[in-house]
Amino acid sequence: MDTLLSRRRFLALAASASAGIALGSLIPRRALAAASAIPDGVIVRNDWPEHWETQVAALGRAPLTANEHFFVRSHFPVPDVEAATWTLEIAGACARPRRYTLAELQRGESSTRTVTLECAGNGRSRMALANTSGTQWDLGAVGTAGWTGVLLGDLLREAAPAADAAHVWFECADQAPMPDVPLFVRSIPLAKALDDVMLAWGMNGKPLPRLHGAPLRAVVPGWFGMASAKWVRRIRLETKPSENHFMIRGYRYNAPGEDPAKAAPVETMRVKSLITAPLAGGTVKAGALTVRGFAWGDAPIAQVDLSMDGGRTWSTAVLTGAEQKGAWRTFEAALPVDAGAHALLARASDANGVVQPRQARINAGGYGNNSWHEVAFHAR
Amino acid sequence: MRADRLGTAVLVITAVLSFAGAPGHGREMRDARMKRFVTPALPPGEGRAIAERSCVICHSRMLLVQQAKDSTAWEKTLATMQKWGAPLTPAEHDSLVRYLVTTLGPRAAQSPR
After folding, report:
1. pLDDT bracket for residue B108 (50, 70, 90)
2. Which one of A77, A103, A179, A251 has the lowest number of neighbouring Cβ atoms within 10 Å?
3. Which residues pair with A100 in a beta bridge?
4. Among B7, B24, B68, which Cα is nearest to A28's?
């Protein structure tokens, strides 16, 4: 498949060159033409490929993030894949490799689960770094949706993994417009894949949008978004993790100057909270302030605390809604507030006793920034 | 919301700037919904033409414009981009690094927000 895709890319380039059009002017316009209109509630960090984040106000509207507001992080342009002819291949170290059409997958047992996805770079622009790297996300590269699909574990058990199979590689249909750019491949441990990973074709009761990986994407609860590969066309059982660029050089917690390949990989989400009310820079009525927000991580949220004095004293918010594994928890509180300028802090703790830090440790890629969220507002 | 509004403002301003500077984008500009979509212009300076030709093939200019890197960091990015296919002669490479460091150089370390 890899050679086929590269060949297709190469042919596309050759065709544009022979038409006498310079690469630099042709491709961007094509990408622009393919792009969708930007809904309100979305902040464009990169127009193509699409890197869109959700405004905090839009996140705060409901516990489930609307499809048109849901953050988008694509490595390459949205690929041209037809649901009707698309197939998913399960291959590699297994006794019964096989190919499924979308219709075949949909005929099986499907389920819907609420899962929060957060981009590993969410909050990168807030990390205290002189040299930045990658997309400068603010707070909104996170969202929660109801995902409908099959459990990957069911397909893998059907394929009968070999005794030494230990990792599952997702190979995707998206590709850069030049042939030497690595394809996007991510792998996860087989144990995780067998546990709670989904392959989804539905999002919030609607067909999965192309921007979000249609016909089929992975949804890996508890892991940062890069694990939830979009436009998945082949799943390989392997004995080792993938050594693709996006595994070894990208998505590593390397300190500035350190070799990414030697640093810890970016995997599970970190305990974190986001205040959605009041909004930063907003004005509220003095008296009783209603505070709302979300808290999430790779373990159930145990507690969210709020501080109006820079973290000297804290009061505990109420966790609302039901606990759902892999989904964020809503929190709410009423705090007394005098007229004047205020700064509100939130700090989440999880069931393992891990507490959100005042400031996340710096890494060159700006990954995993779960520093306390501070919201400055006025009461009058 | 400050950062959000700032982001939108920057997009609209850069949309206008790039409209003024790039007649080829007129069609997109006529569609009001696309206004926030038009890619920002690269900052003026010697080397901009090289960036326009070599750096806007696989992704938008926006990925460059939002960066703040010193020469070591830009060199690292360029090494990857060249390995992946960004066409640059050695002389163009050097001019481009000078341009990027001058126009999109490191920011003062932020205090945490």
Report:
1. low
2. A103
3. A88
4. B24
Instruction: Using a CB–CB cutoff of 8 Å, tell me whether A126 touches chain B.
Output: yes
CB contact under 8 A, A131 and B36: no
Residues facing residue A186 across a β-bridge: A170
Closest among A119, A118, A122 to A144, alpha carbons compared: A118
**Chain position carrying tokens 């009707």:** A84
Give the residue carrying structure tokens 């892999």: A326
To the nearest 10 degrees (0 to 180), the angle between helices A23-34 and A2-18 is 110
Do residues A294 and A330 touch, judged by C-beta distance below 8 A?
yes
Q: Could you say which of 3.40.50.150, 2.30.30.30, 2.60.40.650, 2.60.40.10 is the CATH number of the domain covering A272-379?
A: 2.60.40.650
- What number does CATH give the domain A4-262? 3.90.420.10
Query: Most A CBs within 10 Å: which of B2, B36, B57, as the mutation test of the A interface?
Result: B57
ipTM: 0.85
- Contact between A159 and A88 (Cβ < 8 Å): no
- Say whether A126 and B34 touch across the interface (CB within 8 A): no
Chain A contact set for B36 (CB, 8 A): 38, 44
B41: three-class secondary structure by DSSP = coil
Residues of A in contact with B67 (CB under 8 A): 132-133, 136
User: Which tens digit of pLDDT belongs to each residue from B8-48?
Assistant: 333 333 333 333 333 223 333 323 333 344 567 899 999 99
